[in-house]
Design goal:
This protein is mainly α. 89% of the residues lie in helices and 0% in strands. Helix 8 packs antiparallel against helix 12 and helix 10 packs antiparallel against helix 11. The longest helix is centred in the N-terminal third of the chain and has 55 residues. The protein has twelve helices and no strands. Its main location: membrane.
Length: 351
Amino acid sequence: MKEKKILLRAGIILLSLLSLYLFLKLRVVWNPVWIMLQAIIVPFVIASFITYLLHPIVEKLHETGLPRTLSILIIYLLFFGSIGYGFYRGIPLLINQLMELSANAPRMVKLYEGWLTMIRDQTDHWPMGLHHRVEGLLGEAEQWISGMIDGIIYSIRSLFDNAVILTLIPFLVFYMLKDFSLLKKAAWYLTPKKWRRRGKELLRDADESLGSYIRGQFFVCVIMGLLAFISLWFFGVKYPLVLGMIIAITNVIPYFGPVIGAIPALILAAAMSTQTVITVVIIILVLQFLEGNVISPLIVGRSLHMHPIVIMLALAAGGELAGIFGLIIAVPVTAVLRVVLEHGVRLLRHD
């Protein structure tokens, strides 16, 4: 009986993989439909994520005695008011800095080409394999820097192209926060009866494992980005908003994030002066000390309960599969997979 169950499950998995393969092969047929669905799905996913971030804060405020509607309005206005003000003040500044960076790119490229030529000359007497490896790394670094700038500009263009769709997000978030209990009931009744209890336990454990980490890491990234922007701007480093955004986004990556975020700042600083490089290094070291010893322990704490080796392996896999984006989502995805695996093992033991 047990062998039949194993064979049945193996057959289901194989059929699912075959169906997925055929589905991907028919991309030409369903791709136009997927593009249309993205216009609906993306705002809903973003709104759901924001609701997930804000709901516990709303509940804590409501527990102090404030009416729930007033609690929602306060948190809602603070969150979207801050984002709106940041866009109003930051987007023109960001565009100006990117345009200035683009205008100065030829001069900076010539400067870096001079450095690269010097490095190649210095390593010319090295063993042939090692010299070619250095040249390959330098070429990859050039491509990475170029791709990073193009990616930022493309993201801003996409933001403006989808501005009408993105305006739906604040409205979706308000009604999701307002009717959160109704949404939970709807999800409960839409779930088949035999999966309800297990599904509820799975979601509860995933939230306990991941919820506080995601919320805490989000606020840590915002704080680090603001501190980086203010520090770089105060000491006269060029493009402080661009660099602050990069530092904020990469800070979500454990262990390697600070290094990845520091590279663009150091590259730009090296094109200015040695003093600027020293200033940027000191700023980054101070920020990382504050993040590691004050900000993260205070806000995030040890909420993830994952061994550093597991985190590093997850980052290696995420980086290999999806680059920087893979590094960003690697840890949360691993935490969820761990919970799913634990529930799967528990389910198999009960069968």
